[in-house]
Every structure is written in structure tokens, then in C-alpha cells.
């Protein structure tokens, strides 16, 4: 018997988290395993919706068929409820045997002894790109195994550019070239109804700042989890868009607020936008055009360096009483071709070729486009994803808040930087 528990807080606005029990499969879920050949029960948890749950259940069914001595109990919740539950379990040293991990939380759990080091386990990592695999490491310990990957891209609306008679940025373009492109589009679209802009203020996204730092040959964070950049570097990045900002050539902050939860690019009022490559499907759906194209990010001083960011990872609680079976399940979920077929790109592009090759991809589809893009930029992926510091979520949110204030003209770049570093000193524990 496999017990699936789902957080159902949406049933009523005032309801607490409700666990829905669904029996499926065969066996006895009350057996506890000793990991030495007897019956073993594993607990597995993830965040996501019903569609993801169905894919996990189908995949775990296959694992149980191949491992009849193992019973898997699963649970899933929405993002916020998921991390509330994991924090509670971590305090009681009762984390699941296998659970989805996000890069933003890896240091918080890994550096405090909550996660098992999987580097000496039975998990086959031969099919992983080193730059991706190392994103799950802290001080040489492998605390997470990536299930899938994405990387940053510049999206542009081919229909708008055709209408304006403007060419997209050329191969190998720089940040300065991108600024010139954005200014040209904004000038050409100034008399259109609605007015068309080249882009929004890309400096307002913290991950783009981290990407830019890597292109300068800098790692954003130290090995011991501190900030490795200074006020001058953040100021330089924010000032990349200063001319566009001062000439009102960026998509207006006021209009951005009006459009929420959509944005200028998705309503065809901005011709380009930077984001993660797995946003392509949403952009096509929201904009109503399939002529959404992708380019690598602008090149920096050291060339077009990018990084693979794991869409998510799988980790194992250090408290697991069945580490061998937990590792076997992780190995199955990240390497088995049939699991790759089941999930497709729903969690991002599968991390290993065996799973990518098993996907059922139609020519010209969104999945095919994203796969082709990642193949094209692979030579430029030279760095692992930056391992976020503890408190990353709060400093990222503060960066976004200050970017909105900058967009409204309420603060200057210097005030932005001063306020952010004051906040980060407390959030990250800088001295």
C-alpha cells in the first residue's frame, strides 16, 4: 500500500492543511525497514500540483515493481506549505528519505547536517554535466542530485520586430549591444498604439546580476556562504541601464504594475525579455503568438559564459534509516529512461541524456525548441550555478522591491545599493 498525502488548503480559505489519504498498490505501509534485505518503507515528498503528483506516482510504481521489498509513502504540497513542513521535520530530525530540494535552500539544509552526503552512494552520476552536478555540492559533499536543468535566455517577439523593421541582436552581442537594440525598438515603437518598448529594466532581477558577475570572472558567493561582491559591482550593473532609464526607453514601472500578473512582454508591448528558458511555453500561451524566439544572454567581459541551474534536485534526509534504498530511488528517478518519458520537460529539461532521449518530442514543439536551445548554448555553459547563501530568498525579494522603487524614480542607484547592503548584512550575517 502506498499512502499519498496532499496538502489541500485551497478547499476553504480558512482551512488548515488537509492531508488526503489515497491507497494504491499492494503491500503493508506499516512495515519499517532495517535496510538489510527485509521489507523497507521509504518516505518521499515534493512540491507541485496534481499533474506532477500523477507523474511521480507512475514513476514510483515502476520502482516498486523492480524492488518488491520497498514500499513508498508519498506526500506533496504547494510551495509555501512544503517548506513549512520540511522546516518542522528538520527541527525534529525527521526529514523524508527522499525529497525535492531547491537550490535556494540547499545550503540551509546541507550546511547544518540535515542532508545525507550522496557522493559515496550507488547513484550513477556519469551522465551528468559536471557544471550541473556540482551545483548540488557543498565543500565536496553531494547534498542534492539535479533532476533537470534550465539556463537563462533572451526571448524576443519576432512579430513585433518584423512590424518595426528591426533585426534582433546579432550572435555574440554584448550588454551594450542589447542596450542599443532596446533603445532602437523603443524609438521605433514610440508612436504605436499601444506604445512598444525594447525591454523592461533587466537590472532589476537578482539572477541577472549574478549572471553578469560570473561573466566578469567573479563568483557571487564564497565557499563559506557569504557575499563575494561589493557595492561598486552592484552599482556598475545597475548603471548598465542608466541611459535607457533616464531616457524613458524602458517599459514603465507603472504599466508593469497595472498588468500584473502578466508583463509587458507577454501582452506584446515589450519586444524582448530575459528569463529562464523553460518560460517559453508560458510566453507563447500568454502572448498569443508562436513567433517567440530565443537567444543566449548578452556576452560579458570574458565571453558568453552561462550556467546550468538545476530546476530542482533530489536530496535525502541525514536521518534516513534506509540510505541505500533512498539512494536507489533517487538513482531511478534521475536516470531511468521511462521516468524521463513520463515527466518530459515538466520539471525542466532532464539532466541526463538517457532521459532526454526517451522523451516524446514533436518537431517544432516547445519542448523541441527548448532542447535545441540548450544544445546550442551548451558550449557556453562554463560555470556551475551559484550556490545561494542562507537568507537568499529574503535578499532576492529585497532586491526586487528596491528595483521597483528605482523604476518609479523614488530612489537613486546609490540609494538602492546602500539600502540593499544594509538589509543583506542582517539577512546573510555579513560583518
Automatic annotation (TrEMBL):
It comes from the Bacteria. Keywords: Signal. The keyword Signal applies. InterPro entries: Bact_solute-bd_prot1, SBP. The keyword Signal applies. Gene3D superfamilies: Periplasmic binding protein-like II. Residues 1-25 form the signal peptide. PANTHER family: ABC TRANSPORTER SUBSTRATE-BINDING PROTEIN, ARABINOSE-BINDING PROTEIN-RELATED. This is Carbohydrate ABC transporter substrate-binding protein (CUT1 family). It comes from Isoptericola halotolerans.
Amino acid at each position: 500500500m502506498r499512502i499519498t498525502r496532499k496538502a489541500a488548503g485551497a478547499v476553504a480559505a480558512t482551512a488548515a492543511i488537509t492531508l488526503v489519504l489515497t491507497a494504491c498498490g499492494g503491500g503493508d505501509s506499516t512495515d519499517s525497514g532495517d535496510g538489510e534485505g527485509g521489507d523497507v518503507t521509504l518516505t518521499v515528498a515534493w512540491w507541485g500540483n496534481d499533474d506532477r503528483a500523477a507523474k511521480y506516482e507512475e514513476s514510483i510504481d515502476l520502482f516498486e515493481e523492480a524492488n518488491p521489498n520497498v514500499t513508498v509513502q508519498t506526500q506533496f504540497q504547494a510551495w509555501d506549505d512544503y517548506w513549512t513542513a520540511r522546516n518542522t521535520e528538520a527541527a525534529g530530525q525527521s526529514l523524508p528519505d527522499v525529497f525535492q530540494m531547491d537550490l535556494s535552500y540547499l545550503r540551509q539544509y546541507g550546511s547544518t547536517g540535515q542532508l545525507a552526503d550522496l557522493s559515496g552512494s550507488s547513484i550513477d552520476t556519469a551522465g551528468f554535466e559536471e557544471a550541473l552536478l556540482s551545483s548540488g555540492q557543498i565543500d565536496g559533499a553531494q547534498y542534492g542530485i539535479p533532476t533537470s536543468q534550465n539556463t537563462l535566455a533572451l526571448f524576443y517577439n519576432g512579430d513585433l520586430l518584423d512590424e518595426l523593421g528591426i533585426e534582433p541582436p546579432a550572435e555574440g552581442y554584448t550588454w551594450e549591444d542589447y542596450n542599443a537594440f532596446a533603445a532602437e525598438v523603443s524609438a521605433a515603437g514610440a508612436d504605436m498604439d499601444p506604445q512598444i518598448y525594447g525591454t523592461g529594466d533587466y537590472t532589476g532581477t537578482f539572477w541577472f546580476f549574478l549572471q553578469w558577475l560570473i561573466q566578469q570572472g567573479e563568483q557571487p558567493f564564497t565557499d563559506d556562504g557569504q557575499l563575494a561582491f561589493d557595492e561598486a559591482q552592484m552599482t556598475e550593473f545597475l548603471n548598465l541601464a542608466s541611459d535607457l532609464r533616464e531616457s524613458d526607453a524602458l517599459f514603465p514601472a507603472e504599466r508593469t504594475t497595472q498588468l500584473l500578473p502578466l508583463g509587458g512582454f507577454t501582452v506584446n508591448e515589450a519586444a524582448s525579455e530575459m528569463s529562464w528558458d523553460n518560460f517559453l511555453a508560458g510566453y507563447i500561451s500568454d502572448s498569443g503568438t508562436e513567433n517567440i524566439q530565443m537567444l543566449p544572454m548578452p556576452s560579458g567581459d570574458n565571453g558568453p559564459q552561462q550556467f546550468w541551474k538545476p530546476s530542482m534536485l533530489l536530496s535525502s534526509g541525514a536521518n534516513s534509516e534506509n540510505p541505500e534504498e533512498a539512494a536507489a530511488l533517487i538513482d531511478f528517478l534521475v536516470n531511468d529512461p521511462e521516468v524521463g518519458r513520463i515527466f518530459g520537460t515538466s520539471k525542466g529539461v532532464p539532466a541526463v541524456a538517457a532521459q532526454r532521449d526517451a522523451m516524446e518530442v514533436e518537431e517544432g514543439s516547445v519542448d523541441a525548441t527548448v532542447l535545441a536551445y540548450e544544445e546550442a548554448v551548451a558550449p557556453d555553459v562554463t560555470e556551475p550555478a551559484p550556490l545561494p547563501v542562507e537568507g537568499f530568498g529574503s535578499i532576492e525579494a529585497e532586491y526586487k522591491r528596491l528595483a521597483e522603487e528605482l523604476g518609479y524614480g523614488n530612489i537613486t542607484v546609490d540609494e538602492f545599493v546602500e539600502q540593499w547592503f544594509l538589509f543583506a548584512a542582517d539577512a546573510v550575517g555579513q560583518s
